Amino acid sequence: MDEEYDAIVLGTGLKECILSGMLSVSGKKVLHVDRNKYYGGESASITPLEELFTRFGAPAPDECYGRGRDWNVDLIPKFLMANGSLVKLLIHTGVTRYLEFKSVEGSYVYKGGKISKVPVDQKEALASDLMGMFEKRRFRNFLIYVQDVREDDPKTWKDLDPNTCTMQQIYDKFGLDKNTQDFTGHALALYRDDEYLNQTAIQTVRRIKLYSDSLARYGKSPYLYPMYGLGELPQGFARLSAIYGGTYMLDKPIDNIVMENGRVVGVRSGEEVAKCAQVYCDPSYVPDKVKKTGQVIRCICLMNHPVPNTRDALSTQIIIPQKQVGRKSDIYVSLVSYTHQVAAKGWFIAMVSTTVETDNPEVEIKPGLDLLGPIRQKFVSVSDYYEPTDDGLQSQIFISASYDATTHFETTCLDVLDIFRRGTGEDFDFSKVKLDLGDEEQ
Predict the structure, then answer these.
(1) Does the model's pTM come out above 0.85?
(2) What is the pLDDT of residue 430?
(3) Which residues, including other chains, have CB under 8 Å from residue 123's CB and lie 6 or more apart?
(4) Cα(367)–Cα(113) distance, rounded to whole angstroms?
(5) Phi-psi region of 392 (alpha: psi -120 to 50; beta: other; left: phi over 0)
(6) Which family is this sequence assigned to (predicted)?
(7) How many CB atoms sit inside 10 A of residue 194's CB?
(8) What is the spatial distance between Cα 337 and Cα 340, in angstroms, rounded to a whole number?
């Protein structure tokens, strides 16, 4: 370990593994260290099933769950947007060669006590039970406007410049009611609250386009999920880093980050010090440089049936917009199953999560749990949400934020790309990646 590196990455959470791969690809000499024996950090996948029960202090699972080693349970499950940042990163870096994905079968939104499929094109909009007949026409016109917008062509803006109009002004122009605004902002554009309404519309237009472009790739929903669970992702990026010269050390305690004149100069483990110019890490390695800004509750549910009213989908996402249940933040429900090699035959894993708003978090997720039908076993955790207290430019310590309550990876990617930009002073150049890492073309 007594060597000099351009960057040392601490922790093997997904964000840190992606950063390690990106830094290695960009020509940096990277050392990647984790105090744990396994990849994934707080976003790990747990196998066998017995370990999950032990982790949450539950009695050992009985025979009905099948073989324990057939289970791979994500602690923080999230779906990938088929045309989103993480998939682009996976394709551009060649990490796709280590992974296999399945399309998620359905995307639903909650309204008035029941769930409906999220309408994503003009045809679905006209068939949707989320809106009355006249509202459907207005929504269809709105979708056509969004699809037609070209950022560099004012002729496509129809007197509604998305760079200056707020999203609320565009909704009002098309006469969309509050319910339609609700599912558009939360189930299509995937915003977590309503602050976006008063911001310029261009970001929301981009997000809705991303949703429909992702949907166009595979058809059933815009989401993908990796076979064998999300634990495969950090390991894929770890392999990428190794191909580009990165060094990995698991089960290595970190005693402290060595500073001189307010800047990082190395990392100490026991008697060894690895010198470096930069450190990238998760909040757990630098408690004095992060602040707690909230909490997230997650409930892992093991079931032997799909979610009711989803046409027996073997995988699905449901978003409960905050206004539907009188909250400030959305509730997210995700479902994966034995078809993804993460559970024994006939079994399903659901997750309900949200940002904590009261001192009784379990009551807050009840609307999500009520949609699931009978639950055989559930595991509840409440995690603190941390953010770095500064941008890292002075100390050269760049810290990721904790994982939020969302069931998709878009916010995770934005954080990673932002950290990379701060640490290197430039946006990640996808063209630097050699795509001939293996024989097959992806």
Answers:
(1) yes
(2) 67
(3) none
(4) 9
(5) left
(6) Belongs to the Rab GDI family.
(7) 17
(8) 6
**Rg of the Cα trace of the chain?**
22
Q: Which domains does the chain have, with CATH numbers?
A: 4-42+231-291+386-428 (3.50.50.60), 48-105+292-385 (3.30.519.10), 117-218 (1.10.405.10)
Q: Read off the pLDDT of residues 199-229 as tens digits, 9 standing for 90 and up.
A: 999 999 999 999 988 988 887 889 999 999 9
Quick one: CA torsion of 363, 320, 117, 169, rounded to 10 degrees?
160
* 162 upstream amide cis, omega within 30 of 0: no
pLDDT of residue 1: 65
Those residues of the chain that have pLDDT short of 70 are 1-2, 430-442
Dihedrals phi, psi of 343, to nearest 5 degrees? -150, 160
Residues in the chain: 442
Closest CA to 71 of 342, 350, 378: 342
For residue 423, CA distances in Å to 23, 31, 239, 397 come to 10, 15, 22, 8
Please tell me the distance from the alpha carbon of residue 295 to that of residue 224, in angstroms, as a whole number: 26
Q: Which two tokens stand for residue 349?
A: 């894993």
In 330-390, where does DSSP find H-type helix? 361-364, 366-369
